[in-house]
Every structure is written in structure tokens, then in C-alpha cells.
Design a protein that fits this description.
alpha/beta; elongated; 6-stranded parallel beta sheet
Length: about 475
């Protein structure tokens, strides 16, 4: 007779020795595809913490095969003889491997390899946020049909356990909103710009030299990496798939020290935020853009390469998760946690019951519908706004700008005009009350056409209470 579900979920408490020996696998074999930064970290943890992992899982968890592109390259970690291969099929086709860890990233061949592993009845752990954001529904459906597990804690927030929190700890809640700093590179750049009053280009170059930014940083500074992660979080939080193309995405490349400085004067910090909200009637919004956040908000204090995710539930209220959002060991920690989670659930399950996947494998986490979640168009978002206009220092300028804003139902909350340059350009900063994005964009078009405006206006959205 197979163990009860309560015995499986609770580990080995209440399971007799005879039952344990009858149903428990003697070892969990793991194959890794990709031994870069995260792969090396995951391997180190599995090797160095092997005894701790054996004790917590109940049986040894051993890496038996690792597929890499170049088996001769020195990765700074000793690999046992016979473990490395340049052929991923040796990982996927090995009947003795129980769990495949995919850490090569990107779309292809990662997608093909994951689906092949699933088709062979293997559980999969991945950190591939781009693939999950684009093809997560297909992958989770394939896993559901095959009765295998997909672990993806490492895809969002590095070592921060946000996936598990949404799937399990907060599963009784209706999630109302998520605010996330989930890209360490952008947060590092904005922190340096804020603290040292330096330009974006200058800090980016330093971040690349220090290894915090890629040689091609487009995905990070353009907000694309953040959008991938937000798509995964929205799916978990709101229970339906979301199309990545529907997430409004704006990066930090146009942010200047001048706007950061004005933000300080007004009591705000500038962050690249992933924002998701569920409104009454089932309408959801999801967007990524630079955002001014009040100084006294916890998320405003998150600096450097650290990540933070603030979740509001209808029962739990406000929760914030904080930690390193990237790196070899933090992300490797999340990968190994998924491996251990899957291993615990499988070692007490008879082969005949494997067709019934445990709770970990609900399609795309908590998804309750196969249909894509229709997101609110960006033009219908309501927010507070920050404007900076470079305008000629001459009479009547403010009247022209405020007149246009008024005609578009935009109310001014605060205004700063700095410096006097008779006949030259000066910055004029305006903070608005809540307004409709559509009205904001129409007003901007009119204001840009004024002869007194000498540069394209800067628009930054603001979170927080009305001024």
C-alpha cells in the first residue's frame, strides 16, 4: 500500500521503517545542462552540502552527468571524471537520471531540451525566465500530461523564494498587487546615479567593468529582463497566463541625474519597478518602467544589486521579500531548493502513482485558466505623474503649459522652477494628481509643439498617495 498524501507532504514523520524502505528510492540522480555562473553555483552546493542535502531529503542527491559546450574549459570547479559531456542527449536519454537542470538560458535549444526531458518522464528545474515568460504555458502543459515536476524558483529574484511564497505560503490570498525591483543591474545603476550624481552612461560602463552588467546590457537596462520575470509573477499571482507583448515595458536609458535630483527634492527615489495590480471586476494591469517611489516606502530603500518584491494580499496584507536577485550562489541555492523539493515528493511515491503530479505541478503555478489574461491597455492606466520640461525663461510659459494640462483634465499638485536664464532654457518640474495615461500622452503632444519648449519633455510615473 502506498503512503498517505499527508505522509508524503510531511516528509518521513509517521512513516514506518518498513514502509519507507519499500517505497523510497535509494538515490536521486541529477543531470545538469549548462555549467555557467548559475550552473557552477548549483553544482558547488550539491557537492559541498551533499551530506546536509541527504539528511534533509532522505537519500543522496548526486550529479551524474553535466552537458557543456566545451569540456576542456576551466570553470573553477573540480568535476569528477566521466561526468562532463558535450552532448545534452546523454543527460536527457540517461534512464538513471531523475531530474534535469536546464541552465543554458535563451529560447532554443533550451525549449527543445526541456520538452525532450519531459517527454522521457524526467522532472525539470530551470532558471530560464525568458523561456518561461514566452512558452511557459506549453512547458507546464507538457509536464502536466507527463506527470512530472517543473521547478523554476530561480527564474525570478535569484535566491528570494518568491515563487514558493506565491504558490504555497500565500495560496489562500487573492493577490491585489505586486511591486518588484527584480533586476539587480538596473537597481545598481540607479543607486549609483542617486548616491554619486553620475550619468547613466558613466555608471553603466563601471557596472560592465565590475561584472554587474553584461557586455550587451539591453535586456537589463531596457526593462526586458524585468518584464520576463513579471510575466511569471502575474501568472502565479492572478491565476492566468499573460502574453509578454501585452506588458508595457520601458527601461532606464533616458534617466538623468537631474530627474533623480528633483525626485529627492520632492521626497521620492527613482526605481525600475515591475508593477502588477488586480482591479475590481477582474481587470489587471502589468507594466515595467522607471517609477518614483516615496522615500519612506520600504522598496525605496533597496539599493545596489539587491532585489525586493512587495506583495499585497487580501488576507495577509503587505509582505516584502528581499535579497540578492542574481549571482552564482544565491541563484544556485534556488535551483537546488527546487531539486530537493521535487526529490522529497518523488522518493515516497510508487511508480504507479507518478501519473498524478503533486501540487508543485499545477500548470504554470496557480493558473486556473488556459486563456491568456487580458491586461488593461497602458492608455487606460491611472497614475500620478512627474514632468520635466526644458522651457525658455520668458513670461507666459507656465500659463501655456498649465492651460494645456487643464484642458486634458490634468491637475497640478506641485511645481518647481529652478534657476533664471533670461532668454535661455530652465527646467520646469510639475507633479500631477492622479490622471489618465491617455490624457497625459495627448497633453504631452501639445506641449512638445510649443515654441517655448526646447527639449523633449521627460515623463516618469509615480507610485504612492496623492501629494
Amino acid at each position: 500500500m502506498a503512503p498517505k498524501e499527508s505522509e508524503i507532504a510531511g516528509g518521513y514523520k509517521g512513516v514506518s521503517r518498513a514502509t519507507t524502505e519499500k517505497h523510497m528510492k535509494q538515490k536521486i540522480n541529477v543531470g545538469i545542462i549548462g555549467l555557467g555562473t548559475v550552473g557552477s553555483g548549483a553544482f558547488r552546493i550539491l557537492r559541498d552540502n551533499a551530506e546536509l542535502i541527504r539528511h534533509r531529503v532522505g537519500v543522496p542527491v548526486e550529479v551524474t552527468k553535466i552537458a557543456v559546450r566545451d569540456a576542456t574549459r576551466d570553470r573553477g570547479v573540480a568535476i569528477p571524471a566521466g561526468v562532463l559531456t558535450t552532448n545534452p542527449s546523454q543527460v536527457i536519454d540517461d534512464p538513471n537520471i531523475d531530474i534535469v537542470i536546464e541552465l543554458i538560458g535563451g529560447y532554443e535549444p533550451a525549449r527543445e531540451l526541456i520538452l525532450a526531458a519531459i517527454a522521457r518522464g524526467k522532472h525539470v528545474v530551470t532558471a530560464n525566465k525568458a523561456l518561461l515568460a514566452a512558452d511557459g504555458a506549453e512547458i507546464h502543459e507538457a509536464a502536466r500530461r507527463a506527470g512530472v515536476s517543473i521547478g523554476y524558483e530561480a527564474s525570478v529574484g535569484g535566491g528570494i523564494p518568491v515563487i514558493k511564497a506565491l504558490k504555497e505560503a500565500l495560496a489562500a490570498n487573492r493577490i491585489l498587487s505586486i511591486y518588484g525591483i527584480i533586476n539587480g543591474t538596473s537597481n545598481y545603476i540607479l543607486t549609483k546615479m542617486t548616491e554619486e550624481e553620475r550619468s547613466f552612461a558613466d555608471v553603466l560602463a563601471e557596472a560592465q567593468r565590475a561584472g554587474y552588467a553584461e557586455a550587451d546590457p539591453t535586456f537589463d537596462v531596457g526593462g526586458i529582463d524585468t518584464a520576463h520575470k513579471l510575466a511569471i509573477l502575474v501568472n502565479l499571482a492572478f491565476g492566468a497566463h499573460v502574453n509578454l507583448k501585452d506588458i508595457y515595458t520601458e527601461g532606464i536609458t533616458l534617466i538623468s541625474p537631474l530627474d533623480i535630483d528633483f525626485g529627492k527634492v520632492l521626497g521620492y527615489k527613482l526605481k525600475l519597478l515591475a508593477i502588477a495590480k488586480m482591479h475590481e471586476g477582474g481587470q489587471a494591469e502589468a507594466r515595467v518602467h522607471p517609477t518614483m517611489v516615496p522615500d519612506d516606502y520600504p522598496i525605496a530603500k533597496v539599493a545596489g544589486v539587491y532585489n525586493a518584491i512587495q506583495i499585497v494580499g487580501n488576507a495577509c496584507d503587505d509582505i516584502m521579500l528581499y535579497g540578492r536577485g542574481a549571482g552564482s550562489m544565491p541563484t544556485g541555492s534556488a535551483v537546488v531548493a527546487d531539486v530537493m523539493d521535487i526529490a522529497r515528493r518523488q522518493i515516497l511515491i510508487e511508480p504507479s502513482r507518478r501519473a498524478q503530479p503533486p501540487l508543485l505541478e499545477l500548470p504554470a503555478g496557480n493558473a486556473t485558466s488556459d486563456a491568456a489574461l487580458a491586461l488593461q491597455p497602458m492608455e487606460s492606466i491611472v497614475s500620478l505623474y512627474y514632468f520635466r520640461f526644458m522651457a525658455l525663461d520668458q513670461p507666459g510659459v507656465l500659463a501655456q503649459i498649465s492651460g494645456i494640462l487643464g484642458r486634458h483634465r490634468i491637475s497640478i499638485a506641485q511645481m518647481i522652477q529652478r534657476g533664471r536664464k533670461q532668454g535661455g532654457s530652465v527646467p520646469l518640474v510639475i507633479m500631477t494628481h492622479k490622471a489618465l495615461e491617455r490624457d497625459i500622452q495627448k497633453a504631452l503632444v501639445e506641449i512638445k509643439s510649443l515654441s517655448c519648449i526646447t527639449e523633449d519633455p521627460i515623463l516618469i510615473r509615480v507610485e504612492g498617495e496623492e501629494p
